[in-house]
Amino acid sequence: MPYSIRIDWRALVAAPLLVLALAGCSNGPGVGQSALPTEPAAAASGAGLQSGLGSRAENRKITFLLSQDPGDSFWGTISQGAKDAAELFNVELNLQTSQGDSSKYNDLIGSAVADKPAAVAVVIDDPKRYTENVCAASKAGISVLAYNITQEGDVAKCTLGFVGQNFEEAGFLLGQRLIAEAKLPQGAKVFTPVEFPDQVYAIQRNAGVQKALDAIGAKTEMVATGIDDAGALDKMSQYLLGHKDTAAIVPLGGTPHRNVEAAMADVGVKVPVVGFDLSKPVIDGIKSGTILAAADQQPYVQGFQTVAQLAMHLDFGLSAATINSGGGGLVDKSNVAVVEQLAGTIR
User: Fold this and answer.
1) Which of 206, 218, 228, 232 could cross-link 188 (Cys pair, CB 3.0–4.6 Å)?
2) Pairing state of beta strands 323-324 and 162-164?
3) Torsion 259-265-268-270 (CA) sign
4) CA distances in angstroms from 88 to 13, 18, 310, listed in the order given
5) Which CATH class, in words, describes the domain spanning 9-165+298-327?
6) Cα–Cα distance measured from residue 190 to residue 184, given in angstroms and rounded to the nearest whole number
């Protein structure tokens, strides 16, 4: 993918990132990973920050594993952030994707051990499936950082930290906004379509929404849409046709979110909507009032900060921070203009 951003990040980003890495909360080193360099960084590199970040580490290859197609606007934004950080920090970046195939993704993690990069960035969408290969990479001395979907269980012991949104917290905020603005009745039925209901992100997001809806006795129902737009549109339309009592919709993923307005139009339904992740259709929906609010997990930050933190770990032995990308803010009519021009690139 060609670079689309040419910002002088050295002056704007390098210093704050160093402060962030020093002050941030860390999971600590994974198995076989050293938290501190064996000698002072300045003496080892001899150059400091004169041209990007240093040359202390002989091996500065980072394998960045995408779980979906980088042609998708969301994953393309993650990729762009990773590329920009790699250019700034002068590391060799190897982007690979499994195109949504979890078995292939596990194989890519396993292959990293044989390829011997200095570091690997991974999406852990299943707390058990990838544990063996992630921990094998860590034991081989490869620094592993998780991004996008938070790590859980034993696999977390083999990663340096995490860059991504707190999904349950964001879901709770969306549920509260829905209750406040839509005035849902007691016991309302809320449709929560999502690409993969059994994956960690879907479970966490739905749990947050349901936690908020418990206040009014409302119930969510997850339905799998997959990542194909046409298929997602059809499945949501069919659900709405068969569930006339749907009081609101909370798309838990970018695919159903960008197709929710079309699905309602197809069946002549109009109910309140809040959801996850930004795209042009979602931005348009917020502007028109069809979508009340969206949780933006800032994928560019996930790509950029993951590579930046790995580079600083390799060069200076700095512990990786756990970063909540997107924080607790929502995008709605009050601030949509700020992010509209950047949606799909940096937002």
Assistant:
1) 218
2) parallel
3) positive
4) 9, 13, 13
5) alpha beta
6) 10
Q: Which of 122, 128, 165, 164 has the alpha carbon at shortest distance from 145? A: 122
Q: What is the CA 37 to chain-centroid distance, rounded?
A: 29
For the question of whether the overall pTM of this predicted structure is more than 0.85, the answer is: no
Report the C-alpha gap between 178 and 248 in whole angstroms.
Answer: 8
- Token pair, residue 212, equals 């908020």
Report d(CA 48, CA 42) in Å as an integer: 6
The Cα–Cα gap between 146 and 300 comes to: 15
Decide whether 9-165+298-327 matches 167-295 in CATH topology: yes
Say how far apart CA 191 and CA 194 lie, in whole Å.
Answer: 10
CA distance 273 to 257: 9
CATH 3.40.50.2000 assigned to 167-295: no
- Average pLDDT in the 309-336 region? 89
Residue 220 CB partners (closer than 8 Å, separation 6+):
190, 191, 192, 206, 209, 210, 213, 250
Tokens at 245, concatenated? 């009592």
Start-to-end Cα distance in the chain: 17
Task: Indicate the domain borders of the chain.
Answer: 9-165+298-327, 167-295
In whole angstroms, give the CA distance from residue 96 to residue 82: 12
List C-alpha distances in Å: 113 to 105, 120, 126, 157, 328: 14, 10, 20, 17, 36
Q: What confidence tens digit (pLDDT) does each residue in 113-134 have?
A: 889 999 999 999 887 889 999 9
Greater model confidence, 344 or 145: 145
